[in-house]
Prior knowledge:
Structural class: alpha+beta
Number of helices: 11
Shape: globular
Radius of gyration: 23 Å
Distance between the termini: 33 Å
Number of strands: 13
Helix content: 25-40%
Largest sheet: 4 strands, antiparallel
Strand content: 5-15%
Amino acid sequence: MCYHTAFNTWVNIRGQEYDPWKPSIRPDLERYRKQYDSRHYDLADPKRGSHKLQHLVNRDFIKREEDFPLSKCFDEGLEFLKTAAGSDTWFLQLECFDPHEPFHAPERLERKLNSDYDGLVMDWPKYARVSESPDEVQRIRNKYAALVAFCDEQLGRLLDWMDATDAWRDTALITTTDHGYLLSEHDWWAKLKMPQYQEISHIPLMIYHPKYAGQGGTQRSALTSVIDILPTILECHDIEVPPECRGTSLLRVLDDDKPIHDVVLSGVFGGPLLICDGRFAYHRGPKYLDSTDLYEYRLLPMHMRGPFSLQELRQMELAGPFVFTKDVRVLKIKARDDSMRAPHHDGETFQDCETRLFDLSVDPTENSSIDNPTVVERLLAAAVEEMRKHAVPREMLRRFELEVGC
């Protein structure tokens, strides 16, 4: 989304997923159909499944381990670190993409887990309810595990560099991700269409900082959010955190494990809301699952796979500014049910949106909801306060029935 242009230099590694990398005027559909399971690779209508077909074309050019985009990403990162050696004025971000579907890993790693399987490839589940057999589910999970092992090896290359150069003395390292992925838990694959279960919303976060080197291997209980990463990096470089930054530096959590958030909120645009305080997870369904009273606020009118339609743009107006937009107004565009945004771009909508409360201290996998009005009232009050702090539009409060009379 163009944020990479804020860096002094960047390298774009090609070939991941359905990146339009390698052209093929006449792809060998018959060969692909004999090799890949149609439940994961629907090639009956190549136009409809064009993004997965593009991946298969790309995959034909990834033959050696060093050809994988993940390997190339770490190659470039390690090359940069050689250039940056001896300087204090650098920041490196490696956006690895993996582990991500399709679960494509080197054959040696896949053989360790699926050595007895010689059937069609199943490594890209649809964002849907599980329909595969238990044996097939396990094979897909094994494919994912092989990819995670490959990620571990590549991260190990970076850790080896830190060992070899003693970079631990003066270099901070943050490892995290953007979301999790359901591997048949709750009878679902993937994300987006269902509530933000812990497998999706509770993501890894590991921080090393030379000042706290003696605390290696320790854990913190404070609730954190991805918006806390930016102010953490700024503080690492002694840069003042600007007022539009809505997160909180995590260095204070390394100093003293005290709470910095009462709750964190997460969700997918138009879908259910997760309110979590670390112990309780409250999933609140919206009043509407269609686009009633729903608007998109943005600077760039783009969906994930293409621009907004003319019908959307004709309803565009300016709104704001918001507390985080530096006094700049943004586009306000009426959301449509036929907009090309997830999960609507495949003709479906959100599912399992019942309002439910889970006690993660005794039910970390969220299998048995509980009834506790006192906890719900407290979480809702904290959520409304958080929303107002971030200048959430009033129609969003109405959508979740969180403010009377608005």
